[in-house]
Each structure stands twice: as C-alpha cells, then as structure tokens.
Amino acid sequence: MTTDGFTTCLWFDGQAEEAADFYVSVFKNSKLGRILRYTKAGPGPAGTVVTVEFVANGQKFVALNGGPEFKFNEAVSFEIRCDDQDEVDFYWNKLTEGGGQEGPCGWLKDRFGVSWQVVPSRLLELIGDADEERAARAMEAMMKMSKLDIATLEKAAVGE
Fold first, then answer.
1. 52 touches 30 (CB < 8 A)
2. Rounded Cα–Cα distance for residues 76 and 78 (Å)
C-alpha cells in the first residue's frame, strides 16, 4: 500500500469529467489529473471517459463513469469546515447551483447527487459549549435551519 493516503472514488453515470471539472472550479488547492478513456475493447464506447483523477482541496478523488447501477445517498457525505459566513455562503451557493438541493442543518446535495455538510467552525464551538443551556439553544436553532447562519446561531446561544 502506498503511504500517501486514500483516494475517494465517486461513481457517476456519464458525468465523471463534468463533475471533476466542477469540483476543481469550486475548491482551492485543486487540479485535474489523468483522464482514462475506453478503448475499442469497451465496455463503453471507444474514446469516452472511464475515469478522471482530480484533487479537490488537497483531497484525492477519482471520478468513475460506472453506469446507472448505483446512486449517491446521504450515508456518505463530505464536510466542509468554514471559517466565516462568507465561506458558508460561497460553498452553499456554488454547490447548490445548477440543480443542487438544500437540506436541513447545513446539508445539501450538489447537482450530481453528492451530499455535503457546510459547517461553520463556530457551530461546533457553540454546540460543544460547557454551558449546557447555551449549547442546547444553539443546537435547537441549528435544527431549524437549512443553510447555517453564524449570527443567528450566536444569538440563539446567548438566549436572544
């Protein structure tokens, strides 16, 4: 086994190259890598994409055009920790554009069906507060949100 970490494989139905291009455009520290294409041996049409290797935010991925057999679901998601509301808004807007779906409590699905959690680091501080009442108020506020709003979470935590 190599010592340079894991590569996450994402299974698509003909959208591997489009998805890789999209993720590389959204995240910093990203780049496209090797693209492998079917040969005349198949099973796909010769010249069409089999896999696209890419890095998104320093994480290695391979996008596979595996066919319609499998779909993404919420059992696996990617968490994006954000430093401030501008980052939350950026990732939320980018990942829901073009057919993505908003979900509860900071969760969303992008247009490819991949689940993401867009989480401000401040939320973790608030719901992990040693003051249980403060933490409970922040948690209660979060449970009512779709995209997380740091200012609203902070106000809830102090009882406003």
1. no
2. 7
| Cβ neighbour number for residue 70 with a 10 Å cutoff | 11
Report the side by side order of strands in the sheet with 31-37.
8-12, 59-65, 49-56, 31-37
pLDDT at 1 over 90: no
Amino acid (1-letter code) at residue 42: G
Count of positions (residues) in the chain: 160
Running DSSP on this structure, what letter comes out for residue 45? Answer: P
Question: What mean pLDDT do residues 95-116 have?
Answer: 98
What's the CA gap between 138 and 127, in Å, rounded?
6
The alpha helices in 42-160, defined as continuous H runs, are 85-96, 121-127, 132-143, 150-157
Cross-sheet strand order for the sheet of 107-109 = 77-82, 115-120, 107-109, 101-102
CB contact at 8 A, 124 and 111: no
At 9-39, the pLDDT tens digits run 999 999 999 999 999 999 999 999 999 999 9
Is the pTM above the cut of 0.70?
yes
Angstrom distance (rounded) from CA 85 to CA 23: 20
> Could you tell me what percent of the chain has a pLDDT over 90?
95
